[in-house]
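Trying the structure run again after the queue cleared.
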Amino acid sequence: MTWEELEHAAAACTRCPLYETRTNPVFGVGVRDAGVMFVGEGPGENEDLQGEPFVGRGGQLLDIMLKIIDLDRHKNIYIANIVKCRPPHNRDPLNTEQEACIGWLRAQMELIRPKIVVCLGRIAAQVLIKPDFKISREHGQFFDVGGVQYTALYHPAALLRDPRKKPDTFVDLKNLQEKIRELSPETYGARN
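Done. Tokens:
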């Protein structure tokens, strides 16, 4: 399946009730052959309105975090979510919604073939790394999942709610930068 076919099929999806209340599906944004992929749990209100992941306050913070380690959603990474439609009132996506939607993310990953996947928050880490993932204890650690390196950072929304987590996240970002330089140096192109 091509990118265009995949995006069109995901936009037409009716596998769970979330499609009934969405304004726009939020497929993803970024470089389609990126060595590094970031994955959140699902779109919020701003993302639903604009059809792009991480564009609200949390997205603004994510862009700052990315800039710290020379990453940019339009130049060298790809950003997606577990679910492509906004859960009502920004609630966590239900297990049934995640299960209905995970195939779209897996298809994106097959096309991108990232070397590193960064889960943004507990829910993405529990779906992609392991069901009992504890973000408070395991953030920043790397896990080999099928030959791909996975890690998790605190979700930007969590950092907005509790700025005391920012120093840990800065350390995690710098460790991520080193892992990228090791496993996916092309991510930084000729700039470094």
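DSSP finds eight helices and six strands in the chain. Worth checking whether this holds up in the mutant runs.
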